[in-house]
Amino acid sequence: LSQKQKPRIMTTQASGDQVEERSCPLSNSARLSIVRTCIVQVETGLLNSILGYLRKISRVRIIEDIGDMKVTHDGDCIPHASNEQRIPIVTFVHEVIPSSQIVEHCRDHGVVCRACKFLSTIELWDEMNLTQYDGVVRFSFAHYNNIGDIKRTINVLEMLEEW
Predict the structure, then answer these.
(1) Whether the model pTM is above 0.90
(2) Rounded distance, CA 51 to CA 142, Å?
(3) Where does the chain have alpha helices with state H?
(4) Region class of 132: left (phi > 0), else alpha (psi between -120 and 50), else beta
(5) Within the chain, what is the greatest distance between any pair of CA atoms?
(6) pLDDT tens digits for 56-105?
(7) Would you give the end-to-end CA distance of the chain in angstroms?
(8) For residue 139, how many other CB atoms are within 10 A of its CB?
(9) Secondary element (H or E) of residue 89
(10) Structure confidence at residue 155 as a pLDDT band (50, 70, 90)
């Protein structure tokens, strides 16, 4: 803004705070790059938290994209690319509790998730040794979620009998 122009006062949509509009010396593409980096950092932190927890649960098998879908039939995971390249979706099955029951329990406790086969083929389910399950549980997280959402999800899962 030039010295003659008076800064415009704006009200933020989220909090209603009054803020002063200021010019930004960065290009739109530079600002977009910064925003994308911040989103990836937030989503990666959320993923690391929930995946770290689920990996400790012996009855849970996380379904992960590991390259060219090279999944061993016993559910072992081969190391894969960093979470920075991963979309913030976590999919798993439980060896005792049906996926539909986990989703119903979560829904009853205010945690949003889904269970089904998500347009996958019978061949893929065979290859991944998933045919005995009624579907997979899927949690989708995004940059507007926070660590409190992850902790609440974990607390709700731990309430399940036989978890």
Answers:
(1) no
(2) 15
(3) 28-55, 99-108, 122-127, 147-158
(4) alpha
(5) 71
(6) 999 999 988 655 544 443 545 445 444 446 788 999 999 999 999 999 99
(7) 58
(8) 24
(9) strand 89-94
(10) very high
Residue 152 CB partners (closer than 8 Å, separation 6+): 110, 111
Residue 10, H or E segment: strand 9-11
Distance CA 60, CA 114 (A): 16
The pLDDT assigned to 31 comes to: 83
**Which residues does 147 contact at the CB level (< 8 Å), separation at least 6?**
45, 46, 49
- Separation of alpha carbons 30 and 74, rounded Å: 45
Q: Which amino acid would we find at residue 93?
A: V
Query: 90 has which bridge partners?
Result: 139
Q: In terms of Cα–Cα distance, which of 83, 89, 44, 40 is closest to 62? A: 89
